[in-house]
Amino acid sequence: MKTRLARLAAGLGGRSWLVYPLLLLIAFSSWSISSPPGSSPDEDFHLVSIWCAQGQREGFCYFTSSSATRTVPADLIHTTCYAFHPNKAAVCPTNPIELYETSRGNFVGYYPNGFYLLMSVFAGASIEQSVVAMRLLNSLVFALCLGGLLYLTPPSRRANYILGSLVTLVPLGMFTVASINPSSWAITSATVLWASGVEFVHAPNRRRRIALGALCAAAFVIGLSARADAAAYAGLAVVLAWLATAKLARRTLWFGAVGGVVCVGAVVWAASLGSFAGLFNLPLARPEELPSGWWQRLQDLPGFYIGAFSRGLGWLDTPMRFATWVPASIAYFGAIFWGVRRVRWRKAVCMSLLLVLGTVVPIVLATARHALISEVLQQRYFLPLMIMMAMIALAEDNPDGPELGRAQAWVVVLALTIANANALHTNLRRYITGLDGKWFNLNINMQWWWSWAPPPMVVFGVGAAAFMGAVAVAALTGLRERDAPGPEAPAPRRALL
């Protein structure tokens, strides 16, 4: 029996590209229904933008006398009535026939319209059903893109991308991917684009190179269609993929020229959007103070990035417990530390470039607004940088995978499983009763829940178990060959006397 189980585990490690994205999709699905409409940052803006993405439509969106406003169902605006009130359950008044004129929407090219246009296909009479369908679609986009990457990647390097995509997800990535915020696509693009670009260069044959080129192009378009910063990150990922594979050869120069044109195009596209230009026209947070204090901001920078694991979800009103952010941050920084045990010049240049950008950009933006970094910036804007840092650290110069020992694999499994389960439970609790509810059983005294969904504890259990399975697959595929489970050696025969 033990031998059979060992062989089964070894077989699972070889087919992880099938199991891993499927388990992640189930985990994302639980996150998709763990919060009500209006729960992601600025969701009233995004809901209105989605409902109006196809122009004027009866019952959805109406033009007004001003090009900067639209008239939409008032319930789109009222979905956020509980925002900034963490002890308030997600119970909002509804009035399906009321209309409301608003300027909060993507009416003047503030964001790209691609994300909103696709989401608008799923907009319907029921806001709740529409939002859940969109969240599930975004989760599926992530899972399909990641599954395609793993399918096209040689088995020896799959574990690098599996672990690299995992350690940055909890909790902010899990919440954001399974949302209707365009940052969902920014995370998907950052997770897939650099890796598919590198594998495109390393592809052993034309057929696989075409497939990887198509995946790389899809991830690039996803980034361009999401946000201005996602477009800029997409261009950066192309440059980093070229740097990671650069050699003194004609093909490298050709790829570099194409990558440079693509990067410039992405930056120009990003600069044409209102959200990019708005970075330089935002009001000063503290007009009475001088734009100094760069040293203090530099010292605060590590805490800002730790905030990707600890700062609140939603409208920043769902704080994460220690049981979430401590193990999640340990897993992330531990993975990077383990990945840089081998560093050649290409890897050093790529990681140094990310480190410089991740240091300079937040400090410059906060200084321009006379504020501390955490006062004017959110971690989700820089999560793509953190994703690429983890992917490069683990994938480059580690051709045989992460090569984790058994104890290290167990640490990864326990840390991320506990972090995700605690974050999912906290997110559910915040909207079902408010955070003043302290009991573990989410089914008790429910003030808000979907009328069609299974009980909250079932959603919690399925989501936590699916994510634990995904982490187990990641750890199993990352084992060192000598520590990987396999058939037991036969016991030596005793010599006959």
Describe what is shown at a glance.
With 497 residues, this protein is an all-alpha fold.
What global shape is seen? globular
Instruction: State the end-to-end distance.
Output: 32 Å
Helix content: 55-70%
What's the helix-strand series? HHHEEHEHHHHHHHHHHHHHHHH
Number of strands: 3
Number of domains: 2
Largest sheet: 3 strands, antiparallel
Our estimate of the beta-strand percent is: under 5%
**Which class do the helix and strand fractions yield?**
mainly alpha
- Provide the low-confidence segments as ranges: 487-497
Plain-language structure description:
With 497 residues, the chain is mainly α. The protein folds into 2 domains: 2-38 and 132-477, no CATH class; 43-128, no CATH class. The chain is 61% helix and 2% strand. It is built from 20 helices and 3 strands. The protein has helices at residues 2-14, 16-32, 43-51, 74-78, 114-120, 127-152, 155-166, 172-177, 183-202, 206-226, 228-245, 250-271, 274-277, 294-310, 322-339, 345-368, 373-376, 383-395, 406-432, 456-477, and strands spanning 62-63, 70-73, 99-102. A 3-stranded antiparallel beta sheet has the order 1-2-3. Strand 1 and strand 2 form a beta hairpin. Helix 9 (183-202) packs antiparallel against helix 10. The radius of gyration is 23 Å and the shape is globular. Residues 487-497 have low confidence and may be disordered.
